[in-house]
Amino acid sequence: MSALRWGRGAAGLGWALWPAGRPGLLAEEGTLGGLWGCRRSSSASPCEQDRRRDWGHAELLEVLEARVRQLQADNVSEMRAKLLDVARIPEADGSQSPRKVEAGNEGAALGLTSRWAQKLHKEKLVMQKRKQKLEENLQKQARKHQLRVEPQLLNRQLAGWLQRWERSTPRSPWEEQLAQLLQEAPKRLSREEQHDQANRLSKMRYEAQQQRLLAFLECCVLADQLPLAHHVLVMHHSKSRQQRALTLPMYNTLLLGWARKGSFKELVYVFFMMKDAGLAPDLLSYAAALQCMGRLDQDASTIQRCLKQMAQDGLQLQELFTSLPLCKEDKAVLLRAVRKAEPTFLPPQPPLPSFEVNTSPLLKEIYSTDLPASFPKQHLPLETLKDLFRQQLSVEMATIVTVDSVEKAPSLTEEVLQARKTLQELRTRWEAELCLALQQTKAREAQAAREGRPSLFPYLCLLSEGELTQLMLQTLQVLSQQGESLLSLAQELGMRIFNRHVVQRKQLNDEVQALQERYFKYLHLLASDTQVVMSRLPRQHWEALGTTEASQDQPWPLTVVVQLGKQLAEVLVQTVKMPSNLAQLQDTQKLIPVLYHVYSFQSFRQIGILKPHPAFIQLLETAAERTMTFESAEVPMLCPPLPWTSPHSGAFLLSPTKLMRSLEGTIQHQRLLEGCPPTELHGALDALTQLGNCAWRVNGRVLDLVLTIFNAKGCPRLGVPSPASEAPRPSKHRLPANASPERKTELRRELARCLKVAREMHSLRTDALYRLSLAQHLRHRVFWLPHNMDFRGRTYPCPPHFNHLGSDLARALLEFAQGRPLGPHGLNVAKVLEGFISRKVVKQTVMTVVYGVTRYGGRLQIEKRLRELSDFPQEFVWQASHYLVRQVFNSLQEMFSSTRAIQRWLTESARLIARSGLAVEWVTPLGIPIIQPYHHDSKVSISGGIQSLTFCSSGDTNQKPNTLKQKNGFPPNFIHSLDSSHMMLTALHCYRKGLTFVSVHDCFWTHAADVAVMNQVCREQFVRLHSQPILHDLSRFLVERYCSGPRSTNAQVAKLQEMLLSVPKTGTFDLDQVKHSTYFFS
Amino acid sequence: MWAPMAGLSPRLTLAAFPGAARLCLWRAGAARWKGVPARNRRGLSDFRPKLAPSEGFKVLPPGVSKSRLESKRYILSPDLAETMVPFLLRNDGCDLILEINPGPGILTRALLQRGARVIALESDKTFIPHLESLGKKLGGKLHVLHCDFFKLDPRSFGVIKPVVNSKLLFQKFGIETLPWSKGIPLKVVGIFPTKNEKKMIWKVLHDIYSCTSIYRYGRVELNFFFNELESQRMMANPLNPNLYYALSVLWQVAYDVKLLHTESLEQQTQQNLCLIQLTPHKDLFSQHLTSVNYDVFFHMTKQCFLKRHGKLIDHLTSLSPIDAMDILKKIRQDKTIKIIDMYPSDFKCLFETIECSKDHTCKWLYDDFMEDVIV
């Protein structure tokens, strides 16, 4: 476009300057005119036009350039000087440049003298054109620094339309434009992607790019960088190749952003682009348009036209309020706009919480309203609980929790004080330096975004520089001596930024106030001194108190998370420096880096590691600061968790928590959960809510005892780890110089062994330190452990460091806030074989055979156990383990032949399913949809910066399933899912009976007095669960999932169907025996 | 010529053998004979007159067929054996040869005839009876053992079969230990396996630098056929930068690498095998490079060759917290020196310089934890 305008301008200039008709110039002008005319009158398709224009353009440039090159030699310096002048004039119009006029006059003066003068003159003119072109370029450069607002459309007709609108003064009313734009909208909703199976990889890359761009635009809107987002969209839109990657959600993101700001002009621009791209507005686009009208207080007729158009497009007005993820304020403005047009309009009431009930026969009793239910309450009164909520809220708003270490305080010697002072000084210095470095990084990234390169700029804007600096310094603080891999460090940093951002946004959106009101009402159900009319489950009660807002925070793509973290890690490595001699802080000293980027070689891979300077670690150790920092979601909650109501809402008040934990970047679980009918999940939601509602407190006497042992060098036998200083030391540290190489090797091995032991002890010790410090922090308090589940439905407490999972020590520290302490479980060691062979030796193997352990793995397991027996003669370990595994396998084959048949059926089915190109899915008896996230590794690499990062993800659904893992994983995962169903059923039934109940996988706890009830419930539910035709249900589900629809004609699928239908017979085991069995749970 | 024996029927194999076959590529050889009629199998013993009566092949031991899927190469030509003998027996006071996977025993025979003492470690059970009878015929100077040399002393140090424990093995043959500075206690000859080649190379290098496994007994000399590319890499230096790798440095620092002989494998493919002699350097270990800290040296070399065209000074910052300029000054190198411009000895010198630097409590950023080497 600009080239075009310039062309005409130049021609005009030529006319003006040339005193009389000269053939040479006329010819040239003719070319220009011809080009112009051709373009205007052409009726060829847009793409052909493009080509022609480009060609014409190129030819013109070529001519000019060749000429200029001739002249340039003697005029370079002069031109440079001029260019600098021009550069200073912003938006200078080429034809009005003073220099040019001057040149023109000069030419006119010389013009009439002679032929050579003419020639010279002509050349000068050409040179001027060249100059103009260069000026144009410079202007372009200047424009680069300001963001583009006006779109450049590829459709000529539309472009003309836009231009007419732009040029017309006064502008025709914009609502006209919008109405017209909407009217002639193309009928396509989104671009049909051309499916090219052969090009699967490039398609994946393309999709990842789209995902990143969308996330970028969304983040820009969140970070209040709307003009930048608009600029990037315009940039992409103006190039036909890049435009193809743009999707409707991207345009909609911008529309909504401008609508919220009430910026109409830009909104219309985006509509222009959408039309240009051939995309039809959808409900969200209309919502944006209406919202904008609402904000600008448009008259009724305009809005009516818009609504009419919407109806013509087949979009329902009601749906604007029900099916869009809009925030309250947006909806209010939208309603105002709609009411203007239709004063009588009533927004549809939010659908009342449906008390639709899960249809599973197993859960019938739980949700039946006929039978009496006595759900347990918290033991605390309403006011106390309210107060606890306020405390938890303030903790989560602060995002971090500072906890005092339980380690013995060092005596405050001069050295310690000095170290602390040094550390403090360093941190103050680093803070300022990091802030500065971040500013520079941001400026760089902003520039990248402006130039249309991929950029992290909006992500860096979400948190303030101060907050980012704090995050980085915390990372530095906890870095272990041996360092941490750059990849995991980056990922962690990225995730922390995301979480923090989510919490901040919730605060900004006034969600906190609404949450508090609702929670206080909810507490009436739980508090000991209040009653509610209807006895309901916590989730049901919560749902009855209002609607759940749709989650607005889409997780960022994993690449973005890692890239962001990597960027910060890089800033950290490059910025943080310390004096080479820490003893004396002087400015004159040479500064050395604190962090080093080193490589570790693991077989054929190289892993980048960030490692702190040993002197820095030494400094930290000497200073022995006694505080540690946790993320608020790593600490148990101080009030009852939010009940789980959907796959992404529940548990912590503000910190985002997922119902189903998964590796970062695996999204299939979340998709599956969101896709299934809400009632199907009730069993899982209620069971998890209930597990989280159990109030705990620290067993103070046990903690005192453990702390005493802990600070007196620990006692590994009692499960209290010793400090690494207690690790065994090599017998002799120095060898004589003439020692034999063999002796040296031995020493080396011994050293390495000692080091390894010390490291293990250190990590155990740190784990215990976290646990005990948190216990100390929570002493005299009541707290709650919110729960979620893994992809098989096994439940886990969310706080990682301090919970009831793990060693006896961990369990002994906890007790029910209302009730008696948990006794540690003794280990029954029954002697099975003669001699040294105890039950423990083979137990693992026996238990894991059901899960498909091979003979090789079995031998290793037994070998490990045998080695642990200190009095077993070590030289026989190999033979003995061989012998035993053979024995175990033989006897098991006889015992569990029907179990093995079932296992074989599961394995074979999974193999055939995976071979047909799909991951194995099933639904637990409780209705939780499960999918195995085992695929071939997909590699994503992030290049640039200090190191290219490549991460493999086995959960990428675009990859083919990993048949081996799918088939070997199916039997154990299926059994785990059944176990978890059993646990959840037991939990729900206990809850209905008013029992407090917690569990760790297959180990169930309740108050001692309730054990009998729990035992009974547990057995009953076991029998009921296994009386279901589990395998037939599974078979039916799998046939429907994998063998129906267009696939069913395939021969491979037919084979699969045959396999799936041949359900093996279950064992002849009499389930009723379980009810009377003593050893069912020991 | 290297004759592939695998896909051929025994008759065709017979036809191929009398040709110029000097080495043979043996794919799943034994397993495939299982289905061949006994009459044809007898034909084989015709070809190898010294082979034991065919009973040995009649019943194949169970389990052989599974693990013999990889291809194996054997020396078949007496000419080649004759070429090799002088390299191995050169009157240097060591006539004890450890032959790896001798197969039909062509080289074994040649060695024994020259009066060498040979220990044959054969991993394929099928050849054992034949080798044993060969030993008996040639006067008892041959010990045969069913054992895979390349599985000797696995680095995992878990529970191992006694047969792959070099300590027990060498004790059995009465091999005595010679100090590092003295002569060669033992010469190993064989064809380096193509399967897991890289892994095996690392194992050999770890063994020598840590003085474990066979190197416990002194400077054991290796004579191996490597494929041509690998042997070129072993001998590469800054003069042929395209082949210069971390392994080149590690090989040349530890051994005197000498190319003895090149033998073409198949005429069509122009693929060659090179017989390389690896004699450990007497001065491999010094005060600063020892079997205790060699892994740091390994790591340093590997890290340097991550970016071979990078400057040394850039690498030094992620190797050692010591000032890079100081180090360069000490090793008298310019700051523009690149990794590919440094000779193997320069790397050793660099390592020793950093290792002996005073006033630094921390000389290396490397840490045991960073490597999956199990010591």
TrEMBL record, chain A:
Coiled-coil regions, chain positions: 117-144
Record InterPro entries: DNA-dir_Rpol_C_phage-type, DNA-dir_Rpol_phage-type, DNA/RNA_pol_sf, PPR_rpt, RNA_POL_N_sf, RPOL_N, TPR-like_helical_dom_sf
UniProt-listed NCBIfam families: PPR
Residue intervals of the DNA-directed RNA polymerase N-terminal domain: 390-693
GO biological process entries: mitochondrial transcription
PPR repeat copies, ranges: 247-281
Gene Ontology cellular-component terms listed: mitochondrial DNA-directed RNA polymerase complex
Protein name as annotated: DNA-directed RNA polymerase, mitochondrial
Keyword Calcium: no
Automatic annotation (TrEMBL), chain B:
SUPFAM superfamilies named in the record: S-adenosyl-L-methionine-dependent methyltransferases
GO terms of molecular function: mitochondrial transcription factor activity; RNA binding; rRNA (adenine-N6,N6-)-dimethyltransferase activity
Main location: mitochondrion
One Pfam family recorded for the sequence: RrnaAD
GO CC terms of this entry: mitochondrial matrix
PANTHER family: DIMETHYLADENOSINE TRANSFERASE, DIMETHYLADENOSINE TRANSFERASE 2, MITOCHONDRIAL
Protein name, per record: rRNA adenine N(6)-methyltransferase
Lineage, top ranks: Eukaryota, Metazoa, Chordata, Craniata, Vertebrata
